[in-house]
Amino acid sequence: MKKRFLKEKHRLARPCLTAAVFGICACVFSPPDTGVPPGSSYPEALSEALDSIVSVPADAVVDLYEPRLDPSRGSGSLTLLQEAAPVRVREQGGRVVEYRWSRETFGGWSERLEYLYNLYLLRVHFNASPGLFEDTTGLSTTAALYARAREHDRYTRYYDSASAEEVERSITTTEEPKVLGILVRVNDAGDSVFLKLVAPGSPAHRAGLRRGMAILAVNDSAVTGDSAAARFVRFVEGDTSGAIAFTMRGPAGVFSASMVREKVSFPSVVADSLGGTGYIYIGSFTAETYDGNSTATEFAAALRQTRRFPATVLDLRGNGGGDLSVTLHMCEQVLSGGTLFKIVERRQGSNRAPLRYEFSYRAHAGEPGEGRRFILLADSNSASASELFIAALRSGLGSPFVGTRTYGKGVGQIAIRTPGRGYSLVTYGRVRTAEGLDYNGTGLVPTQLSTARPDAMLAEALQLAAAPLAKGAKARADLRARATLLEWNRGQAQRGGVADLVFPSR
């Protein structure tokens, strides 16, 4: 059974009742251990089938050990995977220290066992009416199980073996299999397309494209003026097999470059400086980004790059969410204490009775980004983990929030690669802010409601960030000095390895 475990060694924000943290998408994370005895509520046929697995030579097994972080049970305690499927284990001093899953299991796994496995997941973890899956009348397939689940929660779903690998890749990494390595933005007038991000080492980066440059034409077809964005998409996506030529406008004038698509891992954070204010764009909360990084390590670097600014805008517009452990790392980098958020879940007990738990996640002091002033920027496409992040900074720092109401995905999910090579996303809990607000389905409301136009919205956030600096001659002089430094940075940004570049409005 394949299951992705995070290997980052940064200090986690520990919950009051400690929970294991798994890889996720849009706030997918494992529920805490409730002490339910292994095997207490498995479908009988599944339990018997797994108990029949015999040991195989060491070179034919896959080690899947991940300790549950429960101090009452020791560092080698049972894992969620083990609770889901009993397998042969090795114990030491009364604690499980290793378990192994035979590769031969994959060859012998059947659709029926896959069905029973997912039935177990939904019975135990699905955050819906108790007993929803006790009556399986008419639920003869795994697809039918998840169809019933989606009647109560639209985020719970199952991907079969044909699409599971691609879905897992998109959830846990920023890797794209065949792209140029760029993200673009359109100005408020809708007549110009600019490079918002150029992935380091990508075909676009090697061809000389840099963030902030204007795209004038694709394969000699203009992408300026009316419907610029629609024409750009049509020209770029029309033929993905051969080379594609861009005509760009940068600080040195107009130039052309040709490139071919290839596999690219994108950074998920961009550091910049605008109008005397630090600016950090956060595109996702992802465990694996480019060059062995995560969004948390990228965010730490961005905080260092913007540390001299009295205020920094955190732009989460369009951020659809990501990994809970990454989000916790990032909250801890800027918050010195207090409750970040809460999770309310329902699990099935050993007698199949519903159990309700509420867990509070707290930050701890000691990170270099603490004590700074941040302005949050988000829109209706900011969802899940980005909403957690916004809620935590609103509660812990009172950070102003500019933009529009967020998407409203306040749920926690476990993400499991199943023995049948499928991929299950099961909603197990509801997320609440530190104050107890349940925003699922309604979203978070900004403190300063803004226009939906991207450039104007950003300008409002920058104005709010700079407001305290307008008092006194010394403050204005400091702002002018910073602006001089910013102009130097912007000029350097066209050279490789320098990331600081203003987004032009035209």
Describe the structure.
This protein is an alpha+beta fold. The chain has three domains: 44-157, no CATH class; 175-263, Pdz3 Domain (Roll); 269-492, 2-enoyl-CoA Hydratase, Chain A, domain 1. The protein has helices at residues 44-51, 80-84, 104-108, 111-125, 142-150, 164-172, 203-206, 228-238, 295-305, 324-334, 385-397, 454-466, 473-492; strands spanning 61-63, 89-92, 95-102, 157-159, 175-179, 182-186, 193-198, 214-218, 221-222, 244-250, 253-259, 262-265, 269-274, 277-282, 312-315, 339-348, 354-362, 374-378, 401-403, 411-417, 423-433, 448-449. The longest helix has 20 residues, at 473-492. The radius of gyration is 25 Å and the shape is globular. 43% of the residues are buried. Mean pLDDT is 75; it is low at 1-89, 96-107 and 483-506.
